[in-house]
Design brief:
Order of helices and strands: EEHEEHHHHEHHHHHHHHH
Number of helices: 14
Radius of gyration: 20 Å
Strand content: under 5%
Length: about 375
């Protein structure tokens, strides 16, 4: 797969075949295995293979003036995030002074985890897409994880381009393999098929522009923009329900984890979590470093770390309690996150719940109940 670039010392653009660094990726995967399947989410302090992605639009294919990235190629999909972060960073000064304070950083880290844990590979076994024995940069159209991630990679990029963040008048059409009919590939088709998601991404980008002229203090701007960002991300996540048939390719244990992972996003989003690089690494590292099998039962999965076993147990508990209460826990949590103060407290509680094994789940439940009553 080609990534094209413009050599600044040469007036003629020339296509090159990017080195895919199979050896480096193999070492990362081997490292994951040797560490008890710990999730690998960073390479040299950045998302996996970040340094080999497109640093400018002209690094990606352009046909007849239309940008045509291939979101089913890992480097292309990761490039969408790199370009998106670069384009929006000038509008996100209220997030902090660190160059990696943008909440968008959580998404490329998530994609890297999906790659190293094998979740972007073909789960059907019908091809070697995404396998170490095949094209390691291939993202399978049969992968539920890849399909779900498409909605938080391609859609926000298409919206950003439409809102002018990639330059005036840029047209984008994502490459789409034959037979893939449940996702969209242009701003127009995505707006028609998934209007709520695209509308909320548009609103987020419009909010970024408005924030630069707003007289509000940075902490209020930050809270407002994080609210818009999470509204957009969750709308994309809900739109990805069209991917659900792909879950049939996985074990019941992996499907339960996938659904509990989606459920956990309801809590994170309501608390307006600032998913910058540092915070996201904390939450991504304890995720399972391989696809789960029917025989896996947390917290007693021998080849996963204590942290991974703990995370799986917490996700399962949150999902079970919410199911038993008929969805009440998620609703109570959403109601409790009614102010800047309660959202800050909510973020602290989530960190304790997910990262501190000694934190009692019963404490979490009683505190949430009390907070919801106070709102």
């Amino acid at each position: 797969m080609e990534l094209r670039y413009q050599d600044p010392t040469d007036t003629h653009a020339r296509p090159i075949l990017i080195m895919q660094h199979l050896t480096a990726l193999g070492l990362l995967l081997a490292c994951a295995a040797s560490l008890g399947q710990s999730a690998v989410v960073l390479e040299n302090g950045l998302p996996i293979l970040w340094g080999h992605t497109a640093g400018q639009l002209t690094d990606l294919p352009i046909e007849n003036g239309v940008l045509t990235p291939d979101p089913w190629h890992y480097l292309h999909r990761m490039s969408l995030y790199r370009l998106l972060i670069a384009a929006t960073d000038p509008f996100l000064g209220c997030m902090g002074t660190n160059a990696k304070d943008s909440p968008i950083w959580g998404l490329p880290l998530q994609l890297g985890w999906m790659l190293t844990s094998g979740r972007l590979a073909d789960p059907t076994g019908a091809s070697t897409c995404g396998l170490q024995t095949g094209d390691t940069m291939c993202i399978s159209t049969q992968s539920w994880w890849a399909c779900q991630n498409y909605f938080v990679s391609a859609l926000p990029f298409l919206s950003a381009a439409h809102q002018g963040f990639m330059g005036p008048g840029l047209q984008v059409q994502m490459q789409m393999p034959a037979g893939v009919e449940d996702v969209c590939n242009t701003y127009a088709t995505c707006s028609t098929r998934f209007p709520d998601a695209m509308s909320k991404w548009d609103t987020f980008y419009q909010g970024l522009k408005a924030a630069t002229e707003s007289p509000l203090p940075d902490n209020e701007k930050k809270d407002s923009l994080l609210g818009l960002y999470w509204a957009a991300q969750m709308a994309s996540t809900h739109a990805s329900a069209v991917c659900s048939a792909r879950q049939s390719h996985y074990s019941s244990t992996e499907v339960y984890f996938a659904n509990s992972w989606l459920n956990s996003a309801e809590y994170v989003s309501a608390a307006f979590f600032q998913s910058n690089l540092e915070k996201s690494v904390m939450f991504m590292t304890p995720l399972p470093g391989r696809i789960l099998q029917d025989t896996d039962s947390a917290p007693n999965i021998a080849d996963l770390s204590d942290e991974e076993n703990h995370t799986l147990s917490v996700f399962s508990w949150m999902q079970n309690i919410n199911n038993l209460l008929g969805g009440t826990l998620v609703r109570m949590w959403g109601k409790a996150m009614c102010s800047v103060t309660t959202r800050e407290r909510g973020r602290e509680m989530l960190e304790q719940l997910l990262l501190n094994p000694s934190y009692a789940t019963s404490s979490f439940l009683s505190i949430v109940t009390g907070m919801a009553t106070d709102c």
